[in-house]
# Entry
Amino acid sequence: MKPIAILSTLAVSLPALLGPAAAQEKTLTGERTTVVAHRGASGYLPEHTLEGYKLAIEMGADFVEPDLVVTKDGVLVARHEPMLSGTTDVSTRPEFASRKTTRKVDGVDTTDWFAGDFTLAEIKQLRAKQAMADRDQSKNGQFQIPTLDEVIDLVKTESAARGRSIGIAPETKHPTFHAAIGLPIEDRLVAVLTKAGWTAKDAPVVIQSFETANLKYLNTRIDVRLAQLVDGADVDKDGRMVMEAPYAQPYDFVVIGDKRTNQDLLTKEGLAEVKTYADIIAPWKPYILASRQVDRNSDGKPDDLNGDGAIDERDRVLTEPSSVVRDAHAAGLQVFTWTFRSEPKRLTSDFKGDPAAEYKAFYALGVDGLFSDFTDHAVKAR
# Structure
């Protein structure tokens, strides 16, 4: 398959996207775009905590996203990765110092503390911390790591109290890794959802994965909606996607020697295949609307557009939208995209430091759902 043309042009131009009278493209169903709280209200509180999920719901989230890993005794808990040091205080606890080890994760030697080496009782001794150093650290050490059952209980309670449906978008983290250590995720997830009574297509559940094989398996085991995540390593100076391991391919492709890349999933042929087992295609947002550096002097150096002496996202300009949303809708797939973050340094120059402008640009393209660290900003812009 040929790589997707990231710069192919839609009928919607950038001026239309960014102007006050932007023409709104329709979502696949014609309903408003779904706002998913990315790891909870992770822009404000430590990610994947009951407190963070509740805050996101209070802010108006339609769904909350618990990333799932498995404990030594087979319980699904919400953590961004099986590695624990980035989001918990495990490294400060001498009683667990000996648990630090090296394992291969998606082909990469990784040294850390792994959830699969801890029982649930031990996991409950840990406390969550803010993963991003440039965000508020004052709530570190206050919140426990929740189980998926606890997340579902919270969501059901909040749904009943607020009189509106709130869903969960669990992501199966590194399914090949979990299978290799004898703690596969899929059937455990199906069992929890079955206990919750959430197995039908209209259940408030979307299961996500960056791998394909486990989604195909889940498609035979449960009828809830499935989302194929599509990753990439980086975006180059011209706005083209960089394909480098371990972000170039679904890891199950690597294992079986399939040479296709993540970009291939977004061709018309790739989308048609995804449609055979999933309901949603969920690419990283630069696949939909990318940005590039500017070199007006043609001196080989990117322009410092805001004059702050540093070259970062604020010094990039938007390219034209790709055809991903249009092609996916034509294939019968909804399009979710990620991750929206409100800090000015994470916004390209066209948005002028205003996160609402970025949301509105993607809403104007007809995306069916998006993942945000700042639920309140996403809801207000919608």
The chain is about 25% helix and 15% strand. Confidence is low (pLDDT under 50) at residues 1-11.
